[in-house]
Description:
two-stranded antiparallel ribbon, binds uracil, binds 1-O-pyrophosphono-5-O-phosphono-alpha-D-ribofuranose, alpha/beta, 199 residues, 33% helix, eight-stranded mixed beta sheet
Amino acid sequence: MKDILLTILRNKNTNTTDFRKVADDLALLLANETAHCLKKQKISVQTPLAKTAGYKIKNNIALVPILRAGLALLPAFLKTFPESSVGFIGLKRDEKTYEAKLYYKNIPKISTRDNVIILDPMLATGGSLVEAIKILMTAGAKEENIIYIGVVSAPEGLANLKKHFPKIQTIIAAHDQKLNKNKYILPGLGDFGDRYFKT
Length: 199
Ligand code: PRP
Ligand code: URA
């Protein structure tokens, strides 16, 4: 299913309505996969007939979309993890230097045990993600408890991430081939934020 949805997102003829719907469907798949990866705690539950064993997610969750494009993944993750706190990090790549510039930050209280889930569909040079992780670790997140959720990554971005933060877990729908000279992912899907927000 993931590959079918991704194909629609990659297609340059996909209109905004379909792009948004399919991005949301794919985000739900990614949220489900994230749920598989989180530590569970055994609990007991009383059915109408008997007591039985069940599970809940063990630690608190903080969802952190990187503005803007990360906002596209947020509704599906809130649906899957409705008790999460939500933090925001606004980063914009400079069009000439490709460096990520911070323009907004609002981070909830984070303890070392919390699961911190960073949402950003595109991992290109990795500059934005590395910056976001530094901010979250300064706020109290533990590297091992951070999960990055993405739609498309470039090998350059993954290498940058692993060089700085080797213990970060990643859940990414597609690992693409390379960056072009403008640091866009090939084959990629273009500019996710512009396509999702129709700008
Ligand atoms: C895009 C994307 C990532 C970043 C990836 O955001 O959503 O945040 O670029 O590139 P990098 O790995 O080279 O840092 P952009 O800065 O274009 O802002 P936007 O989300 O507002 O469109
Ligand atoms: N940001 C995007 O939206 N797409 C890319 O290919 C690279 C950065």
